[in-house]
Amino acid sequence: MTEANAQQGSPASRETAPLTPVLTRRWLSPESWTLSTYEQLEGYTALRTALRADPDQLVELVKSAGLRGRGGAGFPAGVKWGFMPKEPSKPHYLVINADEGEPGTCKDVPLMMADPHSLIEGCIIASYAMRANHCMIYVRGEALHCVRRLHHAVREAYDAGYLGTNVLGSGFDLDIVVHAGAGAYICGEETALLDSLEGKRGQPRLKPPFPAQAGLYSCPTTVNNVETIASVPYIVNGGSDWFRAMGREKSPGPKIYSISGHVENPGQYEAPLGTTLRELLELAGGMKDGIPLKFWTPGGSSTPLFTADHLDVPLDFEGATEAGSMLGTTALMIFNETVSVPWAVMKWTQFYEHESCGKCTPCREGCFWLAQVLERMVDGRGTEEDIDTLLDVCDNILGRSFCALGDGAVSPITSGIKYFREEFLALCDRNEGARGTQDERDDKAGEHGRSQAGDPALAGAAR
Amino acid sequence: MTEQFDFTTTSESVVHPRVDTSVFDEDVRADAKRIVDRYPESRSALLPLLHLVQSVQGHVTAEGMEFCAEQLALSTAEVSAVATFYTMYKRKPCGQHLVSVCTNTLCAALGGDAIYRGLSEHLGVGHEETAGTPGEQGSITLEHAECLAACDLGPVLQVNYEYYDKQTSQSAQELVEALQRGEKPAPSRGAPLTDFRSAERQLAGFFDEPAGSGAGDGQPGTADSGARQAVHGPSAAPETLQGARLAHENGWTAPAMPDNAELPPLPEKK
After folding, report:
1. Cβ pair A331:B87 closer than 8 A
2. Could you give the C-alpha distances from A18 to A6, A12, A273, A310, B250, in angstroms and in order?
3. Where are the domains of chain A?
4. Cα angle: A254, vertex A256, A259; to 5 degrees
5. Do B152 and A106 touch (CB under 8 A)?
6. Considering the entire predicted model, what is its pTM?
7. Cβ of A245 under 8 Å from any chain B Cβ?
8. pLDDT exceeding 70 applies to what percent of chain A?
C-alpha cells in the first residue's frame, strides 16, 4: 500500500454515494425476476433505443463508457466487441459466461436469480451490436435455480416479442439458449467453455485464434461475463458520461462487491469501482465479533492474498494490480486471526488440483505436487526445504501453464508465503523428526515459541 | 505418403457391441430430439443429453452413453470421454437425494469441514458414496463440493442443487435425517425439493410438470402449477439484499440518468 494509492483512493472528487445500486436496484422489488416487474422498472426501454441505433454506435458507446469485463480479467468490453467482423460471412455468436465458480465469487448467481431479464436485455443489445443471431447462456450446472429463472425469463421474453424473429419489428432475429454446465471450474475459462458448449471435454484452446475469429463452431464469437452484459442496458439508457460518473478513470462504473467470511454482515454491496476494503468493511458492520482481520482476497482465490496492510487499496483494476494482486471478480473473502494461512492455502490448492483439466503438464502435475507438499506441511511433517520446493514448483507453473488456471493456483501459495512465511516455518518446527536431526531447527523452534498466530493448533480450531 | 486415416465417425462406421438402450422409452427419445433441436450443431446437445440420461437412470450408465452416442452419431468413446470429465455426471447409482457440502476454503473455515465430517459419520459413507439403496426413498449420496457461489451465506450445502444456506453441523444433520425419513424440507433458496432425477431433468432443460401429474403443458406461468412454484421459489436471502437495503435506508443512489442520453456518432469508415 503506497501513499499515492491512498491519495488517488476512492473517487472523492466525484460525488457519489458509498453505495450505487444499479444492477442490484431491482432486487428489493417483489418478484423482481418476472417480466412484469422488469417492465414496470424501465425494463426493455434500452432495447428499443438500441434497435433504433446502428450496431457500430453501440460498440462505440460501450467503448466510450469504458466498461471492463466483470469476469475477472477486466478486458474492455467495447474493444472485445470491436474485434468481431463487421460483415458476417459466417454466423456470429454471443456466449454468456455464467459458469460462476471462482472460490469466493457469488455475484452472478444472485443477479441471475433476482433480475434475469437485465441479463437477457443485455444479451439482445449485445447480440444486435455484434450482428449475432444466436446467444448461448452457459450457466453453471449447480446453479439450478438460476437455470430455472433464466428459462422462465427467456420464455417470457419470447412471448413478449423481445426474442425470436423480427424482435420488436426491427427485422433483427435472435434466439437464446440456456445451457447448463456439468461441474467443471475450468469451463469458466472462455475457450474451455466453448469446447464444453460444443459437447466436448472442457479444455482450453490455444490462442490465437481468438474467439472473435474462431470461437463457437469456429465462427466469430464473443464471450462475456453475466455482470458485464447486464450492465449494458443501463449504459444505453444512461450514456457513457453517466456510467463514468461512478468509479475511476480507467475502471469506471459500479461493481458488485461480494463480501464473505468473518464480517458482521456479509453480502452483496454494489459500490463504485475503486472503493476500498476499509470503506466496505464499514458498510458490512466491521469484522465479526471484533476479531482482527488477518488476510483476504480482493477477487477470489486466484488473486494473490492481501493483509490488513492493504485496507486502503482502491479496489479497481489498476489499484489492485499496483498493490501486487488483481481485482478478479471482487470476491472479498475475509479471514480473521483464527484461520491458519498454510491451511487455507492447502485447501485452495486441493481445489486447483481437483479442477486442473489435465491438458498441460505444469498445471496437472504441479498442482498435484503442491497439494501433496502442503498437506504434508499442515500435517506437521514438513521441512523448511518444502517452502523452497513450493516456490520452485510455483515458478514452474506460473506463466508456463496452458491457461490462467495454473497462474491462479500459485497465487495463494506465493502470496501466502510472501506475507506469512513464519506460519509455514512454524509448521516445520512441529516436525519432531526433522528437528531431532537438525540442531538449528531446534533453536528456531525455541525462538518462534508456541502460541503465535500461525500455530497449527489454531488451524485445528478453524477446521 | 502414408494413407490418411479417417477419424470421423458416422453411425454406420462405428463398430461396437450392441448395448441395449430400451430403458430409454419413446418419451425420452422425443425429449432427446428436442434437446438436439435447440442447437445449431448437434454435438452441443451432449451435456444436456447426459443430464437427461441421469434423470432416467440416476447415473451415467453404459446404456446411457450408448444412447447419447446413438442420438449424436458419436462413438461411445467420445461420449465416455465427456461423461468422465465433469463432476456432475455420476459414475455410480445416485441416491434419491444428492447432498453436496461445500468444503472449499471459506465455507470450511466457517464450519463446512465439520458439517461434512458430521454427515459422513452419520450416514456412514464417504465422498460420492450412498447411504441406503440407490434410488429408493430416503437414500442419500454424499459428496463434498467445490465453491458453490454462495459465499456470503456460508457454510452452504445443496440437496439436488437447491441451496441450504448458513448451515451448522446440527442443522445439516437434522436436514439429512428428515430426508432419510422421506420428508422434503424446503431449501433456503430454490424450488420445493424433489429428487436427484427430477433436478437432472431440469438441467436437461425441461421445466414442465413431471410425467403423470396431468399438467404437462410446459407453461411455468400457468395457475399454481408445480412448475410455477418452482420458478417462484425463494432466491433472496437477507445477505443477498444487504447492500441494496442499506442503500435504500440511507437514500444512497447511483447518479441520476440524463433524460435523453445520446449515443455516440458512428465512427468514420477507414
Report:
1. no
2. 17, 10, 11, 19, 10
3. 42-240, 246-336, 341-461
4. 140
5. yes
6. 0.91
7. yes
8. 90
Q: Tell me the C-alpha to C-alpha distance, in Å, between residue A407 and each of A325, A350, A410, B201.
A: 12, 15, 6, 36
Class for the domain spanning A42-240: alpha beta
Answer yes or no: same fold for A246-336 and A341-461.
no
Could you give the CA distance from residue A339 to residue A348 in angstroms, rounded to a whole number?
13
Nearest to B233 by CA among B184, B268, B174, B176: B184
For the stretch B182-234, pLDDT in tens is 999 999 999 999 999 999 999 999 997 544 443 334 444 454 678 889 999 99
CATH 1.20.1440.230 fits A341-461, yes or no: yes
Mean pLDDT over residues A262-267, rounded? 98
List the 278-317 stretch of A: residues with Cβ below 8 A of B.
283-284, 301
**Three cell numbers written together for A194:** 466453448
| Residue B112, C-alpha cell as written in the block | 463446512
Contact indicator for A342, A392 with CB cutoff of 8 Å: no
Which residue, among B236, B200, B246, has the nearest Cα to A109 in the 3D structure?
B236
- Residue A86, chain B, CB below 8 Å: the answer is no
The predicted-structure confidence for A89-135, as pLDDT tens digits, reads as follows 999 999 999 999 999 999 999 999 999 999 999 999 999 999 999 99
Query: Chain A to chain B, count of Cβ pairs less than 8 Å apart?
Result: 296
Q: Which domains does chain B have, with CATH numbers?
A: 1-91 (1.10.10.1590), 97-185 (3.40.30.10)
Within 177-216 of B, beta carbons closer than 8 Å to A belong to 189-191, 199, 202-205, 207
d(CA A27, CA A174): 27
Which site among B147, B248, B270 would you substitute to test the A interface, given the most A Cβ atoms closer than 10 Å to its Cβ? B147
Domain A246-336 has CATH 3.10.20.600: yes
Contact B35, B28 (CB under 8 A): no
Determine whether A288 is exposed, middle or buried from the number of CB atoms within 10 Å of its CB (0-12, 13-18, 19+): middle
A344 touches chain B (CB under 8 A): yes
A128 near A173, Cβ under 8 Å? no
Q: Is the peptide bond before A208 cis (omega within 30 degrees of 0)?
A: yes
Q: Residue B133 CB: number of other CB atoms within 10 A?
A: 12
Helix locations, B211-263, DSSP H: 226-231, 242-250
d(CA B237, CA B226): 22
- ipTM attached to this prediction: 0.91
Q: Is the pLDDT of residue A435 over 80?
A: no
**8 Å CB contact of B264 and A463:** no
For B129, the 3-state DSSP assignment is: strand
Classify residue B40 by burial, with Cβ atoms within 10 Å: 0-12, 13-18, 19+: middle
Quick one: pLDDT at residue A193? Answer: 98
